[in-house]
């Protein structure tokens, strides 16, 4: 079959989209029987190109795929609100990226084989902003005290 089509397997898996010679090719949606779903590009029956993968646990990946795995640039959002944006190689965080926790803290730098390396920096999002505000307030108070007229002692 070539063109738009629908394939349903006996185990409950389902594909709806473009096919070439009976294989998934072009744009399509594949839904696994457990509810996991991929929407995006296919090449020669494999997830290849740009797409969205929705996991059954509530996590979501949006970006480039090669041979069915995240590869290239993409964003992985966990159900709890943590987000990784950056480079992927064969399904692992690899290269430059930023991991932001739901509280606003983040680590930015180099990842290797899904792990943070020593080549990066940790920033405390909300804590840093509060610290900067407190520091600015202290500086303003010190400047006001310095500028205030002083009474001479007796």
From TrEMBL:
Region (Disordered): 110-154
Biased composition (Low complexity): 131-146
GO CC, alphabetical: cytosol
Sorted UniProt keywords: Repeat
Keyword field contains Iron: no
Domain of life according to the entry: Bacteria
Keyword match Repeat: yes
Name of the protein described by the UniProt record: Uncharacterized protein
Lineage, top ranks: Bacteria, Pseudomonadati, Pseudomonadota, Betaproteobacteria, Rhodocyclales
């Amino acid at each position: 079959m070539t063109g738009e089509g629908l394939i349903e397997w006996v185990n409950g898996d389902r594909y709806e989209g473009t096919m070439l010679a009976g294989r998934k090719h072009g744009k399509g949606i594949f839904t696994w029987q457990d509810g996991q779903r991929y929407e995006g590009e296919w090449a020669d029956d494999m997830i290849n190109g740009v797409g969205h993968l929705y996991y059954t646990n509530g996590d979501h990946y949006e970006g480039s795929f090669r041979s069915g795995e995240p590869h290239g640039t993409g964003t992985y959002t966990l159900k709890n609100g943590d987000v990784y944006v950056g480079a992927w190689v064969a399904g692992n965080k690899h290269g430059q990226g930023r991991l932001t926790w739901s509280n606003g803290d983040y680590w930015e730098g180099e990842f290797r084989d899904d792990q943070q390396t020593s080549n990066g920096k940790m920033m405390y999002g909300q804590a840093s902003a509060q610290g900067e505000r407190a520091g600015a307030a202290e500086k303003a108070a010190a400047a006001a005290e310095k500028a205030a007229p002083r009474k001479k002692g007796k």
